């Protein structure tokens, strides 16, 4: 498949849904992807089977607070500087770009980065959603060594980190990101096609496009989206309180939705850290990370990202199961409730009342 | 010359004097240097003339707040990891270690790093003193590109920065340092012997040893030191107020010395940022960066580093001329009063009343 300009709106809508509020602004990513396709042509979407065993895959993502990346568009130079540094280190040029996280702008922008580099995009990512911290990727859960991070910022700096582990990777990359103005482009877990087997989540670009297409040309976008995702509806109502603060390269906060219509009298509270992490009702968990929780516009079923939450919006909160990888012991250690500082047990969303 | 264990005390005393309060704790550096010489033997001290044109020089320094580096001793692994990364990048191993700053522990510890790497130490440095920020080196003033910084911390992480300029180099290196616990080992301006000519300050290891030796076996250490340095005495008195705070990887603060004896009734205030930057008396500048200002024990003439300033100490403040490089336009732009946020003109210490 060739990703063309008119695929971008569906991809962007799907990535916003899979982003659970985060992953960077999809509008910025869409704009970059459309411009790059206009300049360089469509981007071939390939699978792991299309690549030789030793082909180098460059997983790219923006890192930073969404409220900042919203304002800053990455330049064409950043992927080039990262690809050059990867070639300098590995002795050969990357053969494909991969999205590190399919959620949010980080799922869409890799189309731009691939187009700018003249490379195909791999139909896979490292999360199947969005997560706020850089070690929260499938490659880490699969046990690949977190031994190299390459970053570049809009000023033109290139920083290469050889961390002793994934937590140091996050700590150092985050510090560099904050120093660079809370926004940078990053390659994490540069890997061969052979290493990628079982260590990336395949098919997620195709899935994001399908999720985005599901709400097109239907009288019931919300129902269609719910079916496509296999999601449960936690509440339909009105946003009555939103609290956000940007600190240390993250957006943290909470959002309160008061039920309307059939849900009148109920209140759902979302805890945020770039992404929606926990949905609480009357002190009970209704859904919790790593399962996916997304706020959508009740009428259009378009996802509302964290930075766009506004008082008075009419929204529905959907929740559905994460990739099985995140439900393993290592997966939950990496991105379960405790990894975010919550003293709450993980219970799969389909088992919660 | 071979630097032997019994040269270390004189080197350490000299480096403390040249450190103008900063440059990292000399006790930690001395301990590391003595241990490394015991384990690996003495370190040859060489000059630029001893090196082939394309020999690679590895300028090393600790970066961080002195109050932290005092507590953390760098491991043997850090210089090795940095040398390996330099070899990976340049395709050949470094031929010599150089001190980035001769002041403080950063002037002494390179003896340890050279011994651990089995390399000679170059009789030169990048400051002729100590400065708090990483771009404040002679290589920067000489116009060498600030295009590579290699850092390693005690946890084992290695970070390589390819900054667009010296200010970004400082900003990113400082962020990494803070994330790494406010202490890291750093190679900045890795350069060839050919590039080093005119871009490093030669003879400073020899000078530090001579400064340290000047106070040995004399009835008047203070007078001997003053003569050796060509320094002027700003005040002799008692430390009556010391204010220090560690923030952003720096120690900032001030110290007040009230005159005693012939200086009774006079008060000198020092402004600090790791180093002593300005000496003020009655609102008038008595000495100012980049000229050197050092607090010494009045009786022993041993330098008192910033982190050791204590209420009640009997001290004398000496000030003397910096290397001519720092008095050039580019030198003053880089490390003159304005570079530290002072709205004060630079006047050479010998022209001040």
Structure, described:
The structure is a homodimer of 353-residue chains. Chain A is an alpha+beta fold and 353 residues long. Chain A folds into 2 domains: 204 residues, 3-Layer(aba) Sandwich (CV3147-like fold); 133 residues, Beta Barrel (CV3147-like), CATH 2.40.390.10. The first copy, chain A, contains 11 helices and 17 strands. In chain A, a hairpin with a 2-residue loop joins strand 14 and strand 15. The longest helix of chain A has 15 residues. The N and C termini of chain A lie far apart (41 Å). Chains A and B meet through helix 4, strand 7 and helix 7 of A and helix 4, strand 7 and helix 7 of B. Chains A, B: This is DUF917 domain-containing protein. Chains A, B: It holds the Pfam family S-Me-THD_N. Chains A, B: It comes from Nonomuraea endophytica.
Rg of chain A over CA atoms, rounded to whole Å, is 19 Å
The whole-number mean of residue pLDDT values of chain A reads 92
Query: Which term fits the overall shape of chain A?
Result: globular
Q: Could you name the CATH class of the largest domain in chain A?
A: Alpha Beta
Tell me the β content of chain A. 25-35%
Please give the number of β-strands of chain A.
17
- The helicity of chain A comes to 25-40%
CATH topology of the largest domain in chain A, by name, is CV3147-like fold
The second-level CATH architecture of the largest domain in chain A is 3-Layer(aba) Sandwich
Specify the structural class of chain A: alpha+beta
Q: Topology as H/E string of chain A?
A: EHHEEHHEHEHEEHEEHEHHEEEEEEEH
In CATH terms, the superfamily of the largest domain in chain A is: CV3147-like domain
Which protein chains make the most extensive interface, counting residues with beta carbons within 8 Å of the other chain's beta carbons? A-B, 22 and 22 residues
Major sheet characteristics of chain A: 10 strands, mixed
Number of helices of chain A: 11
């Amino acid at each position: 498949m060739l990703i063309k300009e008119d695929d971008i709106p569906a991809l962007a809508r799907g990535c916003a849904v899979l982003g659970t509020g985060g992953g960077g602004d999809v509008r910025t990513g869409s704009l970059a992807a459309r411009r790059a396709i206009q300049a360089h042509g469509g981007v071939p979407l390939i699978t792991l089977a299309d690549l030789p065993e030793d082909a180098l895959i460059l997983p790219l993502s923006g890192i930073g607070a969404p409220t900042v990346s919203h304002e800053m568009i990455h330049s064409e130079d950043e992927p080039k500087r990262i690809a050059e540094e990867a070639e300098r280190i590995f002795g050969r040029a990357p053969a494909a770009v991969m999205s590190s996280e399919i959620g949010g702008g980080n799922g869409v922008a890799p189309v731009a980065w691939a187009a700018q580099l003249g490379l195909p995009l791999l139909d896979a990512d490292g999360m199947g959603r969005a997560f706020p911290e850089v070690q929260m990727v499938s490659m880490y859960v699969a046990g690949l060594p977190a031994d190299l991070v390459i970053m570049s910022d809009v000023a033109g700096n290139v920083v290469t980190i050889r961390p002793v582990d994934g937590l140091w990777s996050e700590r150092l990359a985050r510090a560099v990101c904050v120093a660079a103005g809370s926004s940078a482009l990053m390659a994490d877990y540069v890997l061969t096609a052979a290493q990628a087997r079982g260590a990336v989540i395949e098919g997620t670009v195709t899935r994001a496009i399908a999720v985005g297409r599901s709400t097109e040309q239907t009288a019931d976008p919300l129902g269609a989206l719910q079916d496509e995702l296999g999601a449960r509806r936690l509440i339909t109502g009105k946003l009555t309180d939103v609290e956000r603060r940007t600190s240390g390269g993250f957006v943290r906060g909470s959002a309160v939705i008061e039920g309307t219509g059939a849900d009148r009298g109920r209140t759902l509270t979302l805890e945020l850290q770039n992404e929606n992490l926990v949905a609480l009702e009357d002190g009970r968990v209704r859904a919790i990370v790593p399962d996916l929780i997304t706020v959508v516009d009740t009428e259009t079923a378009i996802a509302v990202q964290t930075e766009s939450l506004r008082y008075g919006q009419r929204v529905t909160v959907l929740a559905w199961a994460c990739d099985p990888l995140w439900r393993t012991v290592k997966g939950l250690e990496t991105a379960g409730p405790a990894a975010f500082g919550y003293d709450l047990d993980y219970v799969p969303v389909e088992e919660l009342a």
